[in-house]
């Protein structure tokens, strides 16, 4: 459990950095400079006011300088990533499989909140994440054996790499659905960012995990979206559903439940 406790602390710190990514990447800003600051009064945040979760509680969710409220998203992301790191290290031990799932789910958390807030899924996380997934496939087998169904008799690492690539296929189905919708309704119904997100999910989880994620994300998005539109009396023809948020949450469920565990 010592390794899991260390992973928890490390996850909290990673979550703090991801908060910077969530705020800046959709706005086209650097995540390196300037230093962390209040987004309203622009005052630099001291290190003792930037301790994950704890500083938010001590400051009662307000900036020390201007007194304006700090979004609860900050401690939520930090705590979510910390707990995910703890869970996967406690489940798989200090292994490459645990590192893979920690990296994957941390990116999903960031993408989930980014899409929820700005309706943007940064390429740094989707395409960059897909590349990372391919690298991990060389060291941690993708939980599929699809390559063998095609009669491919290759080395285990190459087989895992092929399975990771095949796992990205549901993204094509998602793109096709969006293309058909646009042709029929003459307006965009699906962002390309959602397709890139599915590519990343498929590369990490394999074909089965990607399909589970797509079905769960589509069902939950449809149900919650319709309820939200009804309750808030939104115009269904113009409301932009953060579908990437539902795909991200579905991917987290599939990873945690173990439907596509390493």
| Overall 3D shape | globular
Largest sheet: none
Cα-based radius of gyration, to the nearest Å:
19 Å
Overall average residue pLDDT: 89
Count the beta strands: 0
Distance between the termini: 20 Å
What would you note in describing this structure?
The chain has 262 residues and is mostly helical. It has two domains: 1-94, no CATH class; 122-262, no CATH class. The protein is 67% helix and 0% strand. The chain has helices at 2-24, 54-58, 73-92, 96-118, 123-137, 146-149, 156-167, 169-185, 192-232, 243-257. The longest helix is centred in the last third of the chain and has 41 residues, at 192-232.
Q: Keyphrases for this structure?
A:
mainly alpha; 67% helix; 262 residues; 0% strand
